[in-house]
Amino acid sequence: MRSLDFNVWSSSSILRYSHLEVNESDLYGSNSGKSLRSDVFGKTSQGGLCTVCNKSWTGCPGHWGHIRLASPVYHVGWMSYVLYWCRLTCNSCGRVQEKRGKRCMYCDAVMVHVVKSDAYALTMNKRPLEAKDVLDWFEKIPVEDVSGVTGHDAFHPKDLILTILPVPPNQVRPSPMLNDSEIHGEDDITRRLLLIVRVNKSLQRYNGTLTRYQRNKLEDAVNAYLDHTKIPSKKKYSKKASDQKSLAERLRHKKGRMRGNLMGKRVNHSARSVISGDAQIGMDEVGVPEKIANNMTVTETINAININHFQSLVDKRSETIKYVIEPPNKKVILSKCRGAISLDYGWQLERTLQDGDLVLFNRQPSLHKMSIMCHKVKVMPGSTFRLNLSCTTPYNADCK
Ligand SMILES: [Zn+2]
Ligand SMILES: [Zn+2]
């Protein structure tokens, strides 16, 4: 894999992934098959198979649905991009302008003046610019003009205006469980989606001819789901509703998905402790507590040079050897193994850390390359890592 691209999910692509159009707000009634709690969204409880992929709850990845919005709405996170394309293109012919002038380079229409007036509100020549008007405008932008700006054709600005809202799988918003049976409580994401479904359903009968008040109501519900923190305070609902987490809040902050679940996890073959200075130790050494050294292992491959040494350690059941691995992958815990083991070339064994092993030593925040350096292990009593005082500078470890 060379690179990873993030892009706006287009309406047509959402529809391709979707298994259900949600248009019922009744979660558990007779129409629940078309609600946010439909079985189509994936299996999250034990018993039975998913109706879509025919897998049990451990195998079902969850499936997407969609809500067809009664009116196009702005996405609170994409307003700066909407503004960017409004200023780049002509309001009447949609062509991308190579330079900014008073009139369009292609159709000579007078260029309009668009500014942002609120978190998700724009004005055009000092009058409100609705999302549906922007959608009409952006639909006129030729695909070649867009790829001329972005360098690829995977994105079109019209997708910045929401017309279809994807509904995430059950796995993203599972019902709270009590003793393995679902209780009828709902995840915050489901609650916020439910509000959208309710508002949307009440507006659908107007067939797209909505008042500005009605459109704003839908827009507020959608954006409260996407990112509640960006909603202007006067539009916020009751305090109870503010306590519900929106999508963006799940990702952000220390306990969010990124920092809380994905980053900074401990890895195998590593240990962590306090550091302290030691004037006796060499600059290329690091003092490792016995407790850590006896717990961490180094993999050695048996060869002509070391076979006699390790065979004698294995024979006397030395505590320094933890595992013996016979190819291809038969792993034996030495302390629990009776009977003779005769090593052969190509076998591997895991021995505990000993003096002279090379290890990487890291002190966070690792701001430059000298924050991670290689040291020779020196096993020592105590329970802190010891380092020579001359090494404190590169690690930025201040000791007094
Ligand atoms: Zn499934
Ligand atoms: Zn024009």
Give a short summary of the structure.
By secondary structure, the protein is of the alpha+beta class. Helix content is 24%, strand content 21%.
Unique bound compounds: zinc ion
**What is the general shape?**
elongated
Unreliable residue runs? none
Helix content: 10-25%
- Alpha carbon gap, first and last residue: 47 Å
Strands of the biggest beta sheet: in what spatial order?
A: 9-17-10-16-15
Give, in order, the helices and strands.
HEEHEEEHHEEEHHHHHEEHEHEEEEEEH
The helix-and-strand class reads alpha+beta
Supply Rg.
Answer: 31 Å
Strand content: 15-25%
Count the E strands: 17
Mean of all residue-level pLDDT scores: 87
- Biggest pleated-sheet summary: 5 strands, mixed
What is the count of structural domains?
2
The helix count comes to: 12
Describe the structure using short key phrases.
four-stranded antiparallel β-sheet; Dna Ligase, domain 1; 12 helices; binds zinc ion; alpha+beta; five-stranded mixed β-sheet; elongated; 400 residues
Explain this structure to me?
The protein has 400 residues and is of the alpha+beta class. The chain has two domains: 1-265, no CATH class; 297-352, 2-Layer Sandwich (Dna Ligase, domain 1). The protein is elongated and about 85 Å long. The protein contains twelve helices and 17 strands. It has a five-stranded mixed sheet with strand order 9-17-10-16-15. A four-stranded antiparallel sheet has the order 11-14-12-13, with no helix packed on it. It has helices spanning 11-17, 79-88, 131-139, 143-150, 188-204, 212-226, 239-242, 247-251, 257-262, 290-293, 307-315, 392-395; strands at residues 18-21, 64-74, 114-118, 121-124, 127-129, 161-167, 177-178, 181-182, 275-277, 285-289, 297-301, 321-326, 330-333, 348-352, 358-362, 372-380, 385-387. The longest helix is centred in the middle third of the chain and has 17 residues, at 188-204. One zinc ion (ZN) binds next to loops.
